[in-house]
Fold this protein.
Amino acid sequence: MDLILVNLIDGLVTGLLLFMLSAGLTLIFSMMGVLNFAHASFYMLGAYFAYQISIAVGFWMGLLIAPLIVGVLGAGVERYGLRRVHQYGHVPELIFTFGLALLIEELVQFIWGKNQMPYSVPEVLNFTAFAISGNSIPAYKIFMIFISIAIFIGLLYVLTKTRVGMIIQAALSYPRTVEALGHNVPLIFMGVFGVGTALAGLAGVIAGPVLGTFPGMAFVLGSIVFVTIVIGGLGSLWGALVASLLIGWITTFAKSYNIEMEDLLNAIGISTPENLSDSVFRDFWSLTSPQIADILPYILMVLILIFRPAGLFGKRQS
Amino acid sequence: MTVSDPKHDVPEGAREQDQITTDPAKASERMRAGSMTLTLAPWVIATVVLVFLPMFFTNNSALTIMNQMSITIVFALAYNMLLGQGGMLSFGHAVYAGVGGFACMHIMNMSDFFETIPLVILPVFGGLFGMGLAMIVGSFSTRSAGTVFAMISLGVGELIAACSVIIVAFFGGEEGISGDRTYAQPFFGVEFLQQIEVYYLTIAWLVISAALMYLWSRTPVGRMANAVRDNPERAQFLGYSARWVRYYSFIASGFFAGVAGGLFAINYEILTEENLNTASSGVILLVTFLGGVGFFFGPIIGAIAFTLLQTVLSLSTELWAFYAGTLFVATVMFFPGGLAGLIMMHVPAFKLGKASGLVMPYIKTLLPAAIGLLGLAALVEMTFHFRHAATGDVEMTLFWTTFNSHEILPWIIAGAVTVIGLGIAKTTAPALKEAWNEANTAGGAS
């Protein structure tokens, strides 16, 4: 029971982190209809910038400044890159963001090298918040949860309650009409892109110290983020939240409970073949849940796409 | 649903901005495929050149590069069946080549069976396995084109790549699986012990696959793939199922990708997780797009250029992936037609007989630009050396000169070369543009 609680907290941290990335990505998608493959790269840039700033002026300034820089960079990419490629069509746009992801990874290696950066949790938060039957929960995790939830509430408030949010929502569905009403739609697009990437940057700032700041960090998280928004339904903010938490919990639980495929198959009445080591399916029989924890999201995505192509919360395409 | 919702009523791919259109009159839409008829002559010439190439490049490393090039060409052509001809962007196509290759490797290791077949038909098995996988995946992924297809391809690609370390029996875990091609039945006495014999096997498959893929693009299925790419709704009004057309393209592409995988297995006799992962899929996308998705021969040019670039650059600099990435992004942003598109842009000028007027302006602009870019590359290399070389190691060699990267003089020289080169290119660019307009205008003073 206690272990379940610990895992719930761990899964919540992972899920909320995923949500900070997928929220921006799904907003950008529903607005421009383009998936930003470089989204996780902005997350990585956030971590690296924060590290560089934290050396000079400390963690808290990094938390404040790094997302801003990333957001400005993101807006620049939209203004000078994506908008230019947009005229060629959808597929080149996807390819552009894919190339950008490659380029940013190379750029980061060029500037900071291939090794992991010693970006660590600030002293103030480097203590144990509380312990559940011997499993200590670091204060930093609680801090991550609070930041993520604050961001989510803030985003929800801005999008649904303020005038700016209304215009954005209108621009998402009827860009031409909004433009006819006198709003600068390209500016809105650029702004949303900037905010989305800034959110990714913020996620990088707070995840860098725990998950490690290294050139492969974008790649590790990147494809999971796409999986998340596909499962949640492309363009749905609530879907992104639910899918993020789902993936966070599934992977955490799969890693901490060692469920073996052999036991599972025996339980449903299939007996283990006698000469297992010679069988073609020997790897299938010896599967354990920690082993497949990292590919569970992909399996889930394929299943969702087969049985509910629009995703959990996605609108059905007529 | 009575209220018209422009975002959701139109099927995926039918929206205006979803398509690769085929209006060659607009520079921005010059992404057509299959709209040019190749005659027999280029095929004969290419075959003859391929047959006689080893006479000029005799050493083994050249043969290895040529083999790699041939395999990449087959793979890139297969990829372009999807991207260029079908308008489907796949981020996990290495999986089909990889699975085909792994299957061939297993056949090589099944000695009883392998001894009864000649090695030359092994790629067929690779192709069949690639096709089999494509049939399974395609059954749900080709439902729509565009973003959803791209996402599924990425997910499936990641899934299978991740499986390679789990399902050790088939993928051999981290060390992969290896075999020996010489156990096969000799083919007219040839046992494929030597590199040159493998070369001829590879180019034979290259020519056959390229010809088959070209012929495929001329069949009704291939033409319908173009139609579905450009306007799926209209194609469906004509009575074709867009989904089935995409499905056929997908499995054909899977077959030829598998053939490329089989050729890889024969050449290298080892396959690992690297043949499956997203990085390989990204490389083939890069190759195809660099060459140009708009024309059948685009991927061929792309594969040749990329393999040469990779070989030359990776020998001389650690940063080659950085340059390749820059080139890729620049291609997407400024020349979405790729190298083939650039070449075909000059056809009107040739037809008007005014191409000669372009030579001097080109030299005046492109030569300084190239020198400026080399200067820029020198600055990048020096920065890299300055930051990442071991402490005390201040000597670096660049463009056959050795100097101290911690002194100011080399920086000034490289900076000056960059500024002057790009500056000259910028001042001569308007003249080039004028010459270009002149060369593409019929009549007038020449």
Observations:
- The mean pLDDT of chain B is 79.
- The radius of gyration of chain B is 24 Å.
- Chain B touches chain A through 62 residues (CB under 8 Å).
